[in-house]
Design brief:
Blueprint lengths: L2 H18 L12 H41 L3 H21 L5 H6 L1 H5 L6 H8 L7 H5 L7 H9 L6 H7 L3 H33 L9 H25 L20 H17 L11 H7 L3 H19 L5 H7 L1 H26 L12
């Protein structure tokens, strides 16, 4: 959709809003046009993105559990390949959900139970070599770094071993127990996350006011938090920015599965969709860009859209997986870091200033 087309939709929407805004007897406006429009953005985001994405993720987790059971019952290379494929499909859906962490979901810290990187290999191996009964309840009691999607990746992928060696590791029945229990626990956690969001719908959609507790303000903070995590942790730590500049390939999220760049691209896709609000073909596709258009910040909107495309291009220019590329294509990885950093500044400084948003600060060091 072009900027002109979006402008027409915005003007029509605001005109209709003006006709239905209630007033007090003294003529004071109770519900402003801006509040109405913010609510439109929140409803669009929830109904056309948050709700379907989390339902999809729960479905993918159920598939992953079923494939895991098949693998457990019949250990062979074909089933391992199927398990790896389903894991990748599941993690990429999760990377699109990762942006949305607020309300009861944020308060429960449930995101950590779904995907906490890096895994604690020592904790996992100690459990496998121990004597405690391994089931989904046992997994639920473990720390975040020993469960979830990252832990499953650790068990079924290994950069240091070939397929036969990975299969041979599963000759230990307790390793199979840990894998199947991880998958069962993940089904429960994904369903809980989906339920939390379903129960939060009304509150989410009606936080139309401005200020720190406004829904739009929370959304822009979500965008900024995810971008900071990409810049500082998902790319920055791999480049060695936190240890004096020595590249750290193994710190790439998805290092064993060689899926780091696919994960970052999935993150970027959800950032783009949240910004534009173009989740479906519904006519009321309200995103952050409409607010810039109406505030006559069209040039800023174009800069943000162009920078998002530059981020896609910086990912695609890297030929190898991030863990190896940080050595063999270091300049391209630096360019990836810089390009996402520029997008972060555009949203954290320029977009926030136009919208009058309050930016909160969180710890994105990944520990």
């Amino acid at each position: 959709m072009t900027v002109f087309q979006k402008s027409i939709i915005v003007l029509i929407t605001l005109s209709l809003a003006a006709l239905i805004i209630p007033s007090c007897s003294d003529g004071t406006v109770v519900y402003s046009e801006l509040d109405y429009y913010r609510e439109g953005q929140l409803k669009n985001t929830f109904r056309n993105e948050i709700a379907p994405l989390h339902a999809l993720f729960a479905g993918e987790c159920a598939k992953l559990s079923n494939v895991s059971i098949t693998f457990t019952n019949q250990l062979n290379e074909e089933n391992l390949i199927k398990l790896r494929k389903q894991w990748l499909e599941t993690i990429l859906v999760w990377k699109r959900c990762e942006l949305y962490n607020q309300g009861p979901v944020e308060q429960s810290f449930i995101h950590n139970s779904i995907d906490k990187w890096p895994v604690n290999a020592t904790t996992i191996e100690t459990a496998i070599n121990g004597e405690d009964i391994i089931d989904k309840s046992y997994i639920a009691s473990r720390g975040s770094n020993a469960k979830g999607l990252a832990a499953i990746e650790y068990l079924i992928f290994n950069q240091e071993k070939n397929t036969s060696e990975v299969l041979n590791d599963f000759s230990n029945s307790r390793r199979l127990d840990y894998l199947s229990s991880l998958s069962e626990n993940l089904v429960e956690v994904s369903e809980s996350t989906n339920s939390m969001w379903t129960g939060y719908q009304n509150e989410f959609e009606t936080q139309a006011g401005g200020g720190l507790e406004g829904g739009q303000n929370k959304l822009i903070n979500n965008l900024i938090n995810l971008l900071e995590e990409i810049v500082q942790t998902k790319v920055g730590k791999v480049l060695g920015n936190s240890n004096g500049g020595t590249p750290m390939p193994s710190l790439a999220e998805g290092y064993n599965s060689a899926a780091s760049l696919q994960m970052i691209k999935a993150n970027l896709k959800t950032i783009e969709r949240c910004y534009t609000g173009e989740f479906s073909q519904a006519p009321f596709r309200v995103g952050f860009d409409e607010f810039l258009i109406q505030s006559e910040s069209i040039a800023l909107n174009e800069r943000i859209l162009n920078q998002i495309q530059s981020c896609y291009e910086s990912i695609d220019k890297i030929q190898n997986e991030l863990g190896s590329a940080v050595i063999s294509e270091n300049q391209q990885v630096v360019a990836l870091y810089d390009t996402f950093g520029e997008l972060l500044i555009l949203l954290k400084v320029d977009l926030a200033n136009v919208l009058g948003s309050t930016i909160t600060f969180t710890d994105n060091d990944g520990d």
